[in-house]
Amino acid sequence: MEKEKRSPHIILASQSNLKFKETLPIKWGAQTAMERGPVVASNTNHKARNAIGAHSGSYTVYRALSIASGKFPPMHRPDLNNTQSPVKIGPYPQWKDPLKMVTVDPWGLDPQLNFKPLFEEGYDIRPTISVTQAHLQIPEINEAIDKGRLQVDGSIIRENRDVCVTKVAIDPVWYLPGVAERLNVDEGDLRRILFQETGGMYPEFITRPDLKVWLPPIGSSTAYIFGKAEDLANPKVELTCRVHDECNGSDVFGSDICTCRPYLMYGIEDATRTAQRGGVGIIIYYRKEGRALGEVTKFLVYNARKRQEGGDTAATYFRRTECVAGTEDARFQEFMPDCLHLFGISKIHNLHSMSNMKYDAIVKSGIEVVNRVSIPDHLIPQDAQVEMEAKKAAGYFSKEPKKTTEELKKVTGRAIKE
Ligand SMILES: [Zn+2]
Q: Cα(262)–Cα(258) distance, rounded to whole angstroms?
């Protein structure tokens, strides 16, 4: 049991003698996994660590609670036997370009295979991506089958109406020089502000400029693939894609102030239909709740919108968010395409999104977009008309004309107590 204990000795990151022979270099964007080198952030051997932060994003804190309460052996190493992906994903040329993907580590998929010799040497390299297969049971898909928009085909949609998918969980791994470059800021400034805004959580931002990779304590992303995963990289195969930012209130609870769940479900329906006609579909779900401002801010904005003079109108939709949060949007879609490049995507035939920020980021990253698909009107809840009309007026993509300022004032939502 003694062996299970980690040394209680605390090592301050500001100590200068922290480079060890066990520390492997990371050459971001190298041609092979072994040349690139693994990201080692596990705590079982601090001498081998070559990244800032810890694995599992925000769940790091729960792991700490488990260890503190004696329920989790701190020296535990995962047994990765049989955990590998059931489908082949990559490697793609995008994996070997140091600037194409700066917030995802593609070699974090099945590291026990990619870095086999290093595992045999005893390195504790943890996966940051995992892949599995599942069946989805969704009321909106049932309705689409009832109405004849989707058909049971026995493979993509089973006889019991289950939709078969491959799903991929992606933890964030940030290559700081690439993140700085994408934002067009100095890496030193970025590191200093990250240090300050996290309340000094990661002194290595300042003390260890040699460490270039950070595992940020934020949510992961999840991709749902309809059809064959390897077809995503083939530009000749029709691809339907939705890049969806989390909205717990609508996505999970069916709250009607926005169009998030209807749009998500329409994306799933269309991705399924595309797979059934020989194409492939992908929905990527990003944990960026409330435009990455968080749900607390979001609910404050809802109240401010509904209580303002004149009520909740499309004319004042964006302004209220900025008043409360300091910015209209904190999602930084610049990094969103990284998850598309993970799958080797170079062409999207049908992009389900009305957001110009998403569209621009995708196109700028080198992916061709053929059609943009907006949500059909009949799927928009009444109270969400405010959001929809405000977005269209602000230049979001839609096939319908935008409303004038006077017309926007007439698009109103429910009052706060209704
Ligand atoms: Zn929403």
A: 9
Residue 318 lies in a domain: no
Residue 200 domain-assigned? yes
CA distance 344 to 267: 20
CA–centroid distance, 258 to ligand 1, in Å, is 4
Q: How far is the CA of 384 from the centre of ligand 1 (A)?
A: 9
Q: Considering the domain boundaries, does residue 122 fall inside one?
A: yes
Structural domain count of the chain: 1
Of the candidates 320, 329, 338, 372, the residue annotated as catalytic is 329
* CA atoms of 416 and 418, how far apart (whole Å): 6
Distance CA 6, CA 41 (A): 15
Q: Is the pTM of this model over 0.90?
A: yes
Which residues place a Cβ less than 5 A from the ion ligand 1?
Answer: 247, 250, 258, 260
Backbone phi, psi, residue 73, to 5°: -70, 120
Within 8 A by CB and 6+ apart from 45, the residues are 22, 124
Task: Report the alpha-carbon distance of residue 110 to residue 130 in Å, rounded.
Answer: 7
**For residue 86, cis peptide bond before it (omega within 30 degrees of 0):** no
Distance from the alpha carbon of residue 78 to the mean position of ligand 1, in angstroms: 36
Residue 57 near residue 103, CB atoms below 8 Å: no
H/E run at residue 197: helix 187-197
- Written in H, E and C, the secondary structure of 96-120 is HCCCCCCCCCHHHECHHHHCHHHHH
Contacts of 405 (CB under 8 A, 6+ apart): 315, 393
Rounded to an integer, what distance in angstroms lies between the CA atom of residue 384 and that of residue 146?
Answer: 26
Q: For 132-142, what is the mean pLDDT?
A: 97
DSSP 161-181: -PEEEEEEEE---EEHHHHHH
What separation in Å is there between the alpha carbon of 397 and the centre of ligand 1?
17
Q: Which domain holds residue 53?
A: 19-127+173-212
User: Which of the following is catalytic: 331, 372, 377, 414?
Assistant: 331
Is 331 considered catalytic here? Answer: yes
Assigned domain for 186 exists? yes
- Summarize pLDDT for 234-285 with one digit per residue, the tens: 999 999 999 999 999 999 999 988 889 999 999 999 999 999 999 999 999 9
Give the Å distance between the CA of 302 and the centre of ligand 1: 11
Residues 172-222 pLDDT 10s: 999 999 999 999 999 999 999 999 999 999 999 999 999 999 999 999 999
H or E element in which residue 310 lies: none
